[in-house]
Each structure stands twice: as C-alpha cells, then as structure tokens.
Write a structure and sequence with these properties.
heterodimer; A: elongated; B: mainly alpha; 2 domains
Chain lengths: 184, 160
C-alpha cells in the first residue's frame, strides 16, 4: 500500500517534469521559428501530419494496453511460465512477455522470482526480451508509422533471434556453472 | 484516416467488446487505466512531435544521411546502436521518430537497429537487472541483444 502511494507520487512528479520539458520545447520552437520565419510552414506542417497520424491510433493503443493490464495480471504470467521448459517454454515466454503492460523494470523482479521457482533460463530470457520489444500495442504503433513490411519483418527476425539467444545464454550459464563446480 | 489506423481502431474495439462481454467491471477498469496512461504519455508525444517538425525543417537530408544514412556505413550503425542502448525514451514514441528519420534520409538498417537496441537494451535499468538476475545473465543478455540488434538491422536493410 505504501509502495503504491509512493509510486503515485513518483508518477505525478514525472508528469510535471514532462509538461515542463514540453513547455521548454515549445519555447525553443517558437524562438527558432521567429528567427527563421521561412521555415515555419514546413515545420508546422510536418509536426501537424505526425500529430494527426499519432492521435488517430493513440487512444486505441492505450485501450489495448489498459485491457492487457487488467485482464492479464502478472500473477497469471508467473503461474504459467514457472513450469515450462525447452522450446515450448521459450515460445510461451515470448507470448507471456508480449501481453502484459508496464516498463521493463517491472519484469525484472518477476523474472527473478520465476528463476528462484525453477523456471528455465531460456524461457526467462525470451520472456524479458518479448516484454521489452514485442508488445502488441507497440507493434500497432510500428505498423502505423513504419508500415506492414517493416513491422512484420522486424517482428519475425526478433522472435527468431530471441529464441536463439535464450537457448545460447542457457547453454553458456550451464557451462560456466559446471566449470565453477569443477574448479571449486 | 488511413487503412492502418482503421485496422488498429477496429482491433482495439473488438477487444473492448469482448472484454465487456466477459467482465463489465474489469473492462471499465481497463478504460480508466487507458485514459490515465493516455494523459500520462501525451506531453512526451507532443515533445517528440515538435522535435520531429524541427528536425525535418532545419536539418538537411544530406546531413542526416551522412550520420545515419547509407553513406554512414558500419560506423554510423554502431553509433545509432549505442544511442539506442543508452537513451531511455518510451518505445511508443520511438516509431514516429524512426519514421521521420527514414523520411529525411536515414537508412532502414540504422533505424531498425535504433528501435531494437532502444527497446531491448537498457543501460539505465542495467543496475536493477544485475541486482535481480545476477551479473552474468544481465550482461550476457544486454551484450547479445546488442549484437542481435545489429544483425536484425543489417538483414532488414538487405531485404527492404
């Protein structure tokens, strides 16, 4: 409960900070554009175009994030990921990493708890990587701004390499554990 | 409204309808969460949108192309990868930034590398990662992710 209150206070100061930085950015933009008035049209038009493109999808993206946040609680992720192994575990790790919302630093304690519970390192690496860069709402924004080809190709490549990375790190850590045992 | 935006909104609406059928109370809570996070991210979105306008208006295509374009080569890609690893900006707003860079002469490779290191690697969050997962695993994950990001970028540059 106390943590929750602290978290809320932190969020508030973050918003205040963001608004102040926004104010500074606006002032800088106004100063720059009054020194170079002939740039005004191009700058305003570009910003406006990007704003429109963003505002058309941002509410939808936020709704998706809110839904995942409420319907995919972290406890559920921990429950399912705790007892899976092998390539199936890795794929499950990716899926369960892609659904919940929140910054990466929320996922670290979850990963740590899962490791202590005996989850495979490969699944955990896949889970963390998916949490970081295969979020569904995030993919939507990528689709909007960079196009279907870019988004799909990067998604497929990321999944392939994350699977490989999970297995490689698991192997490396197992090897160094064996070496530590032999030496000690 | 373009096709992609319509698709995304339809997708979200579909999920929302399902959510309301399954659990009204939870669905309402989700909407509250959505509204709050919308206003939380809005200032950052506006900042990046103004910066994009200034970037495209003031920095010439040839300058951007020299730093992160085809001419920049592997050195440019490495710089972009490092930048992505160190910077701590929300991934949601990295996509419009990436799109604006491509528009103004950046290569597909450097933009893909930037987005990938930005999301996968966190120098800022590394201390916490080490604390929670141990030095070995945290450093392995970040270093291998860095290499992977560059490989993904190069493949994307070749294919697209």
């Amino acid at each position: 409960m106390k943590d929750n209150v602290k978290g809320k206070a932190k969020q508030k100061t973050q918003i205040v900070k963001d608004v102040i930085i926004l104010g500074i950015t606006v002032v800088i933009a106004i100063i720059l554009l009054s020194i170079f008035p002939y740039k005004k049209e191009a700058v305003v038009r570009t910003s406006w175009d990007f704003f429109v493109e963003m505002i058309l999808i941002l509410p939808a993206v936020m709704v998706l994030m809110g839904l995942f946040n409420v319907f995919v609680p972290n406890e559920m992720v921990v429950k399912y990921l705790g007892k899976s192994a092998g390539i199936k575990g890795v794929l499950l790790g990716i899926l369960l990493g892609a659904l919940p919302t929140g910054p990466l630093y929320v996922a670290f304690p979850m990963a740590s708890a899962l490791l202590k519970k005996g989850a495979k390192i490969s699944s955990i690496i896949a889970f963390l990587s998916a949490w970081a860069c295969i979020k569904i709402p995030q993919e939507m924004v990528e689709l909007q701004f960079l196009g279907a080809k870019f988004m799909a190709l990067r998604l497929i490549l990321t999944i392939i390499f994350v699977v490989v990375m999970g297995l490689v790190i698991e192997l490396l850590i197992a090897q160094s554990n064996r070496k530590l045992k032999k030496d000690g | 409204m373009n096709k992609t935006a319509i698709f995304i909104n339809a997708f979200a609406l579909l999920f929302l309808i399902f959510a309301f059928i399954r659990d009204r109370k939870k669905a309402k809570k989700a909407l509250t969460v959505a509204l709050k996070s919308f206003f939380r991210i809005l200032p950052t979105v506006l900042i990046i949108i103004i910066l994009i306008g200034l970037l495209l208006g003031f920095v010439s295509k040839s300058t951007i192309s020299k730093i992160v374009g085809e001419q920049a080569g592997l050195g440019g890609v490495l710089v972009v990868a490092m930048l992505g690893a160190v910077l701590h900006i929300p991934s949601l707003i990295s996509f419009p930034l990436a799109a604006s860079l491509i528009k103004s002469g950046a290569s597909i490779t450097s933009v893909a590398v930037f987005i990938t290191t930005l999301t996968m690697i966190g120098v800022v969050t590394l201390p916490l990662e080490i604390k929670e997962l141990g030095k070995r695993m945290a450093i392995l994950r970040n270093v291998i992710s860095f290499v992977i990001a560059i490989i993904i970028g190069i493949i994307m540059g070749v294919v697209l």
